[in-house]
Amino acid sequence: YSRTKLLWQELPRAFDQADRLILLEIYPAGEPEIEGVCGRTLAEAVAAAGHRSVEFRMTAAEAAELLAKEAKAGDAILAIGAGSVGQMLDRIAEKLATREGTHARH
User: At CA 4, angle to CA 3 and CA 5, rounded to 5?
Assistant: First the structure.
């Protein structure tokens, strides 16, 4: 929470070049919550700063399901974060491989 709060002024514009942005809840990193600093509020700030396609999902599983369902050939999916966020890419790759009938590559 403290790192997000420290970067709060810069974060809403940091993702301007992304075609689509899906934000998850903030990983606590062993510290107490800071009121008003959460994934949903950050998504709202990014949208208010003019991002054309930002949304919030509560869990990595929800985001993985959505991305695997909507990804098209040639799309690049980047996951940045702490905790289990990196495992989300494995789930997406598996779902895409199942959907496409190929082996997952990541």
Answer: 90
Specify whether the CB–CB gap between 99 and 68 falls below 8 A. yes
Confidence (pLDDT) at 97:
86
Between 40 and 100, name the one with better pLDDT: 40
Q: 63 or 27: which carries more pLDDT confidence?
A: 63
Q: 3-state secondary structure string, the chain?
A: CHHHHHCCCCHHHHCCCCCCEEECCCCCCCCCCCCCCCHHHHHHHHHHCCCCCEEECCCHHHHHHHHHHHCCCCCCCCCCCCCCHHHHHHHHHHHHHHHHCCCCCC
Q: How far apart are the first and last CA of the chain?
A: 30
39 near 62, Cβ under 8 Å? no
Q: What percentage of residues in the chain have a pLDDT greater than 70?
A: 94
How many C-alpha atoms does 43 have within 13 Å on its Cβ side? 16
Which pTM does this prediction carry? 0.83
